[in-house]
Amino acid sequence: MLTKVQIRECLDTFAEMFPDAHCELVHENPFELVIAVALSAQCTDALVNKVTKNLFKKYKKPEDYLAVSLEELQSDIKSIGLYRNKAKNIRSLCETLIEKYNGEVPREHEELTKLAGVGRKTANVVVSVAFGVPAIAVDTHVERVSKRLGICRWKDSVLEVEKTLMRKIPKDEWSQTHHRLIFFGRYHCKAQSPKCDICPLLHLCREGQKRMKKEKKHA
DNA sequence: CTCCCGATAT
DNA sequence: ATATCAGGAG
Q1: Which residue ranges form the domains of chain A, and what is each CATH number?
Q2: Which nucleotide's C1' atom has the smallest distance to the CA of A47?
Q3: Which of residues 99-158 of A have CB within 7 Å of strand C?
Q4: Strand B nearby residues, CB < 7 A
């Protein structure tokens, strides 16, 4: 496990590598963000953006998603995968927004998680990106990077990872760090072929050092 | 824990 | 061919 000073070094390095990391899901309002994040489960941001480009032209309000057949909505998001669940969730989510929230996206985390297809991670993204509330959404990248670097433990659950990160990172840096962790994971510390050979944090990364040794043996 | 699932990288 | 992708629900 990394020390407080070592974690500070990680945060500073993330800042140098990705100074303007941000939410890459294209959206113009909280409603579009909720839809985009709900669609993004087990799918790349790039693909979500490709689909929402047309989707957000066709569907502007919650009512619009309820005006078409389930099959039509499925077909509109099919290329994203998990499309049956996601189409069902979006319809249910829109019904709830209309019935309980006057068609608006609620600002409270607890209310957000009551929406179909919106779990803890998605709610964190929405409160953080749409409403400016400090939060750390732990997705596959944040989890992988935190575990590889030793910011948290390998056996930690997603919730434990989030708690650890909140404990070890100053609150006013949560949202920024969250996006930098994602960029670091997405473009540098990748799942399949991490760039350990050029990583500025290799000296404090057990996992990276292990990988480099293996690579040497293979060569 | 399993299932949902197409697109893309390796 | 297989792993992975801004996860959530049952």
Answers
A1: 4-21+137-218 (1.10.1670.10), 30-131 (1.10.340.30)
A2: B7
A3: 113, 115-123, 125, 129, 137, 139-141, 144
A4: A 42-44, 47, 78-86, 190, 192-193
What is the CA A42 to C1' C3 distance in angstroms? 12
- Between CA A186 and C1' B8 the distance (Å) reads 14
Catalytic residue list contains A139: yes
Nucleic chain C contacts, protein chain A, residues 34-73, CB cut-off 7 A:
37-38, 40-46
pLDDT per residue as tens, chain A (219 positions): 999 999 999 999 999 999 999 999 999 999 999 999 999 999 999 999 999 999 999 999 999 999 999 999 999 999 999 999 999 999 999 999 999 999 999 999 999 999 999 999 999 999 999 999 999 999 999 999 999 999 999 999 999 999 999 999 999 999 999 999 999 999 999 999 999 999 999 999 999 999 999 887 666
DSSP string spanning chain A?
A: ---HHHHHHHHHHHHHH-TT----S--SSHHHHHHHHHHTTTS-HHHHHHHHHHHHHH--SHHHHHSS-HHHHHHHHGGGSSHHHHHHHHHHHHHHHHHHSTTSPPSSHHHHTTSTT--HHHHHHHHHHHH--------HHHHHHHHHHTSS-TT--HHHHHHHHHHHS-GGGHHHHHHHHHHIIIIIS-SSS--GGG-TTGGG-HHHHHHHHHHHHH-
A121 is catalytic: yes
